Amino acid sequence: MATILPPTDGLANGLAKLGLSNGDASHNDSKPETKSDVTSETQSQIRSDAQPENKFEVKAGLARMLKGGVIMDVVNAEQARIAEDAGAVAVMALERVPADIRAQGGVARMSDPRMIKEIMETVTIPVMAKARIGHFVECQILEALGVDYIDESEVLTPADATHHVEKHPFSVPFVCGCRNLGEALRRISEGAAMIRTKGEAGTGDVIEAVRHMRTVNAEISRAAGMSPEELRVLAKEIGAPYELLKKTAELRRLPVVNFAAGGVATPADAALMMQLGCDGVFVGSGIFKSGDAAKRAKAIVQAVTHFRDPKVLAEVSMDLGEAMVGINCGTMDEKERLAKRGW
Amino acid sequence: MTQSRPQITVGVLALQGAFSEHLQLLQQAAAALAANRVAGPAWRFTEVRTPAELDRCDALIIPGGESTTMSLVASRSGMLEPLRDFVKAHRKPTWGTCAGLILLAESANKTKKGGQELIGGLDVRVERNHFGRQVESFTAELDLPFLAATEAVETKTDKRPFRSVFIRAPVVEKILPHTAGMQVVEAAKDGTIVAPSRMPTDEVARREFDKEVEIMARLPGRAKAWSKFSDATAREIGEEGDIIAVRQGNVFGTSFHPELTGDERIHVWWLEQVLAAISRREELLQ
User: Fold this and answer.
1) Which residues cross the membrane (chain B) (predicted)?
2) What is the mean pLDDT of chain B?
3) Can you tell me the distance from the alpha carbon of B24 to that of B260, in angstroms, rounded to the nearest whole number?
4) Residue positions of A in the annotated binding site for D-ribose 5-phosphate?
C-alpha cells in the first residue's frame, strides 16, 4: 500500500473546511479569547493563519515533523530528560502511565498543570498532554498552558458518553485514537490533525495496535477500489464524512499523520508497526515500566529510523534487560478494555 | 550522436522528520526543470539513512523534524562524521529546512540541557524555537526575490508570494565572521553550542568554504508590528525582520518548511544551484 502523504497544498484546505462551519460559532461561546496582544493582530497582515486551512496546515505540519520518531510517556521532569536524551521527538506528560492507571483503577483525569509545566520547562522538544474524551475544558486548560499537542485519549476516563471535543476552533493541535477507518475519519472531521491506533494501552501486548492498523489499511484498500456511488454507501456504513473518505481513497492512506500506540514494548514491536505503514510510534508504559528505561528508549528510537533493516534491529534488541511484564489481551476481561471508549 | 546525460543523485536525510515531502517536491521540481531544458541531467532522488547511502549523493537535503532526535540518531547510526565530511570537508551542495538549518549552523542556542551535536557549514548562530511553542506556529506570505534568478521560466515569472509554514521555527540570530576553525567566541558563550571544524579537502571545497554568508530572506512581521505605534521604519528601530533564509557558497538554510506547501519553486531554484555548484567543480577540475 502506498503510504506517502502528499504536501498539504489543497489537502489542508479540504480537511479544515469539513466540520468548521459549525465549529467556530459554538466554540466562541464556550472559550474566551486568550491571546489578544497587538503583535499578533498586526502580524496578520503578513501572517496568513487567519484562514482556517492555514491554521490546520500548521497543526498537521507539526505532526509531519514528528514522523519517523518516537513519542514517550513520562510522569516527571526526570523521565522527560531521559526521553529527550534517548532521542524522543516529543513527550507525553501524564501523572500515571496506562499500566498504573489499570492497576490502581479509579477515575483517570488530566494531569496536574504544575507537573506538565515542569516538564515543559525541562525539555526543548514538543510536550503533549492528555485530556479526557469530550472534556473540552481540560483542553482549554492545556491550551492555556501552552502544550504543543493534546491527546483526547481513551486512556483517561471519558467525560462525555456521546460527544468528542470539537477540535477545529482550538489553536493547539489534537491527536486522537482509532480502531478503524470510520473512527479515524470522524476524529479528523472534528479537527484532529494527527491520528494514532488505540491499541490496548498499558498492556505491553501489541496485538490490538496491529489489529487496528490492519483494519484501517484493509478498509482503505477496499475504499480505493470503489466508485463514487459505492463510496457513498461505505461512508454511511462506517459513519465517516463522504469527502474525507473520498480523499482517503484517492491518497490510499489517511490524510493526516498516523502513529502506532497502545502496547508497543520492544524495538521489534515498533518496527512492526512502522512496516505496517505507521508514520511513527507512541510508547507509553513500555519504556519506564521496563528494566533499563534509557537503553530501551534509545533502542526503540533506532528501531523506528532503521525499521526496514533487520541487522540494526537485531543489534539494538540485544541486552535490553527486562521488558514490562504486560497483560495478555486475549485473557483480558471485556470491561477492562480501554480501546472501547469513544466511538 | 547522443551524449549520455550526467546523472545527479540528490539525497534527503531520512533519519527522522518530513523527508518524504521533500522527495515529492524534488520530483515536481525536476519535472519543472525538464520542461525548460533541452538536455538536463538525469536526476535521482533517494532517502539517506546510512554512510553508504550518503556516499552516493552529489547533494543533500536535511529536512524538518526534531533536531535533537536527528543529531542523536545520526550520532548513534555512525552518520555524524560522514555528514560533517559531506558538508564541510567535501563541501557538497546541502540545504537544511528548520531542524536542518539548526544542524547546518556553526552555532546554536536554546538547545536541550547538555547541548546537541551540530554538523555546521553555515557561519551563523541559530536560535531554536525562536517564536515559541506550537501555538505560536504560523504561516506567512513571503516575497523571495532570489526566486527571480531561476532559469526555469515558470518559477522566474511567477510573482505570487511564497506561502511559508513556520513550525516551532528557529531563526538566524546572528551572522558570524567566517573563520577557518571552530567558532571560538561562540563556544565561550553561555548556553551556546558550536560545531567542530573540518578543513576543506580540496581547492573546489575551499572556494565554496571561503564564501560569505548571504541573507536570502527576512520575515518582516515584528518590524511591521512596531511601526504601527510609531512612524519609524523598521530600519530606524534597528530591525529589518528576522533572518529566515541564508546561503554560504553552496550551503543553504531556511527556517520555514517549503516542503509543506506543495509549491516547488524553491526546490527548482535549489536544483539549479546544485547544477551550478557541480559545474563550478567540473570547471576547476579541468
Assistant:
1) none
2) 88
3) 10
4) 73, 202, 263, 284-285
Q: How far apart are CA A13 and CA A57, in angstroms?
A: 8
Domain that holds residue B87: 7-285
Domains of chain A from N-terminus onward: 52-336 (3.20.20.70)
Q: For residue B118, give the nearest of B81, B168, B143 by alpha carbon.
A: B81
The upper half-sphere exposure of residue A142, i.e. CA atoms within 13 Å in the direction of its Cβ, equals 31
pLDDT at A17: 58
Q: What are the pLDDT digits (tens) for B85-106?
A: 999 999 999 999 999 999 999 9
Q: Mind telling me how many Å the CA of B2 is from chain A's nearest CA?
A: 36
Residues in A closer than 8 angstroms to B77, CB to CB, are 302, 305-306, 312
Q: Is residue B220 part of a domain?
A: yes
Alpha helix positions (H), A146-266: 181-190, 207-224, 228-238, 242-251
Is residue B227 pLDDT above 60, yes or no?
Answer: no
Instruction: Find the CB nearest B224 among A46, A126, A305.
Output: A46
- Share above pLDDT 90 across residues of chain B, in percent, rounded to a whole number: 62
Residue B110 pLDDT grade (very low, low, confident, very high; cuts 50, 70, 90)? confident
- Tens-digit pLDDT profile for residues B166-196: 999 999 999 999 888 889 899 998 889 999 9
The answer to whether residue B1 sits within a structural domain is no
In a domain, B189, yes or no: yes
Q: Provide the number of structural domains found in chain B.
A: 1
Where residue B157 falls among pLDDT bands split at 50, 70, 90?
confident
CB distance A57–B260 less than 8 Å? yes
Binding residues of A: 73, 202, 214, 263, 284-285
Window 9-38 of B, Cβ < 8 Å to A: 14-21, 24-25
B163 contacts chain A (CB < 8 A): yes
What integer is the mean pLDDT of B213-233? 63
Q: How many CB atoms lie within 10 A of CB A229?
A: 8
Residue B236, in any domain of the structure? yes
Which are the contacts of A2, defined by CB distance < 8 A and separation ≥ 6?
Answer: A251, A252, A253
- Better pLDDT: A293 or B1: A293
Q: For chain A, say whether B39 makes contact (Cβ under 8 Å).
A: no
- Domain with residue B204: its CATH number is 3.40.50.880
What pTM was estimated for this model as a whole? 0.91
- Which of the residues in chain A have pLDDT under 70? 1-3, 8-51
Residues of A with a catalytic annotation lie at: 130
Nearest residue to A139 (alpha-carbon basis) of A31, A21, A22: A31
Q: Which of A65, A88, A147 sits opposite B64 (nearest CB)?
A: A65
Q: Considering only residues 263 to 282 of chain B, which have any Cβ-Cβ distance to chain A shorter than 8 Å?
A: 263
Nearest to A60 by CA among B261, B23, B264, B102: B261
